[in-house]
């Protein structure tokens, strides 16, 4: 039985295949088609939705990993589709390159990350899919399709973020940047002050984000500034990193979540304690070591993309909702930002975007909280993250994606027999 990280999905596939070559992927797709079985690639299982659930053939493509080609002049690197994000910094280091932006979790595979719209934060930076300048995938008839600026270029806005619905991605070409250092400044600040000056904060920073613990009025802000790769580094010491990022952020937090589940009434006090434990700190290090954090406490998450200017109003509505319903929420709300892009199913397509993510401990019921927050998000033309929990369907999503039907036409062309689908994909894209 396969289970995803959040334990929201599980399945026992009819069969599991682990191809060690592109040709083996092609054979698997052809065989699935002949048997009229659906086939899905699976990465790290870090999506909260059922986007990777395979009841027919589950394809583990982790053997298709590593650097396949490098174009130093154009700073482009082609990776196997099964390469995990946490492996990429070491793979790029010999070439003096880095990914332009990353999210705060790096456990995903590169193909899974781009297929679900994984993103970081920064007003000038799009999600990971916007770094894709080429891809190779096995489509419904088992043939290879190359998509880049010279081959099938018109398909790139669909393929770069395709929900796994267009084929099995076996290679991804990324537009990289010269390796760089990030200076991080983390501070606890009054939530009201942050919201009042939010546009200015986002505009002034390379990368700005913050967390807010419900039942408090404090924002835990993080501002990252990009520096040249040769800039002096002042990384967190091993002891400081262990205490802050491992002991407090994971082990102590796991205990408090477990206790709070049994005694919800103590959550406001625990959250106020958590904000006090998170003090100001500054450090600088190689970009990937600053972008990504280690997360070991399991949770469920829903994240919505909104017009950036709507973030303060929506956050205030969520605060009022929690207090009005009398809920006790132990997990923080996360707020990030991204540049507008032109990918057809990107949550940031066509607009400067703010992201608001709500979470619940995985042993707590999340449905009532998430659905009530989702109603607020939908009133602001919100778009749900494809890899995180939501209740939307194709009819609803068509209203907020101008290129929804154009993507559907590409899907009809590349996978007319619907080999690469499952219940979740059918719900959000239509059968």
UniProtKB/TrEMBL annotation:
GO terms for cellular component: membrane. PANTHER family: D-ARABINONO-1,4-LACTONE OXIDASE, L-GULONOLACTONE OXIDASE. This is FAD-binding protein. Residues 9-179 form the FAD-binding PCMH-type domain. Pfam families: ALO (PF04030), FAD_binding_4 (PF01565). Keywords: Oxidoreductase. Coiled coil: none annotated. One of its GO terms (molecular function) is FAD binding. InterPro entries: ALO_C (IPR007173), FAD-bd_PCMH (IPR016166), FAD-bd_PCMH-like_sf (IPR036318), FAD-bd_PCMH_sub1 (IPR016167), FAD-bd_PCMH_sub2 (IPR016169), FAD_lactone_oxidase-like (IPR010031), Oxid_FAD_bind_N (IPR006094), Vanillyl_alc_oxidase_C-sub2 (IPR016171).
